[in-house]
Design goal:
Elements lengths: L14 H15 L7 E2 L10 E2 L8 H4 L7 H20 L9 E3 L5 H4 L8 E5 L5 H9 L5 E5 L2 H7 L6 E3 L19 E3 L8 H11 L3 E4 L5 H8 L7 E3 L5 H10 L3 E3 L9 H8 L4 E4 L4 H4 L5 E4 L4 H12 L3 H11 L2 H16 L1
Parallel strand pairs: 1-2, 3-4, 4-5, 5-6, 7-8, 8-9, 10-11, 11-12
Helix pairs in contact: 1-14, 7-12, 10-13
Protein name: Glycosyltransferase family 4 protein
Organism: Pseudonocardia xishanensis
InterPro entries: Glyco_trans_1, Glyco_trans_4-like_N, Glycosyltransferase_grp1
């Protein structure tokens, strides 16, 4: 089960969609029979079964002044309909040995006990109010969790979600090493918590320039706070698919990763390392788990001057060491191994 709101297709809206895409393909490649439930418009190669659309809301219901937003209702209806169907028809007799929940919605957790097959939920984010409520009120004997990093697992454990750590991974055969030497790159969703403004300011201080790549879901933030800082050798390159982004990362001397929140994993770090590009970033969330002194330079969160100093220091690191770190610690094969082992334990 993936996002009901965002299609799983390149250029991916975020790491969750990329994770679901890669894992489904890898599992199929290893001989597993995988059904993906997701948003309409997803990549045809996944054979996604689209989640149910929200039927028309009656005039009487719309007159309720407390009616939630349409997107909230649409997500609620999609997951509720799917889970009710799985609870009635999705047991082992229908061929489903296990349900892997990759969504950020509360209903797959709340309704897990009603499903005949065991349910695994991957925790992709820090605790959120909706998910925390579902975890706290759920049946611990029926809920199983994976977390994308040790940091994220530690955040959830006090709330009752004892998660097995399965680090995210990237396809190191697709994200190939490049020559480097070019302007630094910042990649990811261009939203406040990812820190694009901080990256631009650090690059200006360092005098290195910067290329920004990624979707702009918060158009107002981009227009008001990011666009005014662009110009000269600081440019926005658009939202690129993985092939084009890998080419850009491979030519960069450094990847700047400047989260202003506790990053649950940081897929952009793994992508950069696979391209042989060292990282300069803030030591927040899971970044210290991924990076070693051989492939990255981390500084105190929010310290623009220190990040500016880290950019040329990271550029001097060995690109081969960055690539080796991706191959040994950040590969999609290692991630799939972890999930296969977890599936086997759950289905035993």
């Amino acid at each position: 089960m993936a996002s009901a709101r965002y299609p799983i297709r390149e250029p991916f809206p975020g790491g969750l969609e990329a994770h679901t895409f890669q894992l489904a393909h890898r599992l199929r490649g290893r001989g597993h029979d995988v059904v993906v439930f997701g948003a309409p418009g997803s990549d045809e190669s996944l054979g996604v079964r689209p989640m149910p659309a929200l039927p028309p809301i009656s005039a009487a219901a719309r007159s309720d002044v407390g009616m939630p937003a349409d997107w909230f209702l649409a997500e609620h209806h999609a997951y509720l309909t799917l889970l009710l169907d799985l609870s009635r028809n999705g047991g082992r007799d229908q061929g489903f040995d296990l349900v892997h929940n990759n969504s950020l919605h509360y209903l797959p957790l709340a309704m897990a006990p009603s499903l005949p097959a065991p349910v695994l939920t991957t925790l992709h984010t820090p605790p959120t109010p909706w998910l925390e409520s579902a975890v706290r009120t759920g049946d611990p004997s029926r809920l199983r969790f994976a977390a994308v990093s040790g940091f994220t697992a530690d955040q959830w454990r006090p709330l009752g979600a004892d998660a097995t750590v399965v680090p995210n991974g990237v396809d190191v055969t697709a994200w190939t090493a490049g020559p480097g030497g070019g302007r630094p790159v910042w990649s990811g969703r261009i939203v406040r918590e990812k820190g694009p403004v901080e990256a631009i300011r650090a690059a200006r201080v360092a005098g290195t320039g910067l290329r920004l790549v990624g979707p702009t879901p918060d158009r107002r933030f981009f227009a008001d706070e990011v666009a005014p800082l662009l110009g000269g050798d600081v440019t926005y390159e658009g939202h690129l698919d993985h092939r084009c982004l890998a080419a850009v990362l491979g030519t960069a001397s450094v990847a700047v990763v400047s989260p202003c929140w506790d990053e649950p994993y940081g897929l952009v770090v793994a992508e950069a390392l696979a391209c042989g590009t060292p990282v300069a970033g803030f030591a927040r969330g899971a970044l210290p788990e991924i990076l070693t002194p051989e492939c990255g330079v981390l500084v105190a969160p929010g310290d623009i001057a220190a990040l500016a100093d880290a950019i040329p220091r990271a550029a001097a690191l060995d690109r081969a060491a960055a690539r080796r770190r991706a191959e040994t610690h950040c590969s999609i094969e290692a991630m799939t191994d972890g999930y296969e082992a977890l599936y086997e334990r759950m289905c035993a």
